[in-house]
């Protein structure tokens, strides 16, 4: 043992009992805050106890270790100072705290060991011990107060017992009333359930009737919608037929008028039926030139004569012409070149032109800007362009001149049977080249 440890031990043995008890209490509390590695082996089993139990059971072991183990005492003093920062700092710095308890100050000084710690311990030893007689008088006073409290408690208990008896009697009455109320409620619930069942049954019947009415109403509405659709379709069809009949009649009348005018010019008929003086002069008259002429289908002059017919409708088999004229060009370029050239032809002769392309050649939507006066149609899915051409010829009124440009012999034969005139693709390409 070192010299300092010997001095500490001798001082510890002379600690006043109140100071020593306070030191053990503070050190036992600090013991629970230290890590296990910093706690001496004999004290480790007390570290997990509650603070009061730890202070009581470890006192016999903790006191000697505080007397002999300086390192453990300093660790405990650090925790105590952290728990009591103001008084601990004052004791460690040697600052006097007159209002503090001398026993508390002496216990902190013993653990912290400032230079004047022995003086604090000596001052605590001078604190007078309370008079045992005064303690006895205090005990007697407390005994009298206890007897008085017991008397009052007994009186209160008797009053409470009476109140409990009254409450029990009242509880019996309330239970009887509660049972009667429950019986009435049970009867009302039974009646309510019966009425609820009757109401649910009535609701089910109403819902069934309502569902039947709604089904009938839906059927009537569906029938009305169907009849309205049929009526609308009939009106639209009748309107379209009237409009188409008017258009066909107007075209046929225009054709007849222009044909009569052309025939008058062709036959050189006089404007009136009166005999002219020159008609009386004798002489032989030349033979009249034949009306119209016959020419091959690829004759450009025949193409111009047919375009000169009144209200002529020129229908063109698009790819049949473009693949003849520009076979090496892409399809989109062929289409655009054809409709552009036909736009110039419309501007010159003011004829109605419809170009039909086969829709089977398309891979997507077509971007095409036809000029004004040129109608462009693509055959729908599953229908070839030849059939669309035949439908266009059938749609025209009988008597209107219709010219179909196609090298396809089957198309030519079929449209001739329908009353149209057929021209080859080369006649159109020659006319376009000349334009």
From TrEMBL:
<feature type="region of interest" description="Disordered">
    <location>
        <begin position="268"/>
        <end position="289"/>
    </location>
</feature>
<dbReference type="InterPro" id="IPR010298">
    <property type="entry name" value="YacP-like"/>
</dbReference>
<dbReference type="Pfam" id="PF05991">
    <property type="entry name" value="NYN_YacP"/>
</dbReference>
<keyword id="KW-0175">Coiled coil</keyword>
<protein>
    <recommendedName>
        <fullName>RNA-binding protein</fullName>
    </recommendedName>
</protein>
<feature type="coiled-coil region">
    <location>
        <begin position="139"/>
        <end position="230"/>
    </location>
</feature>
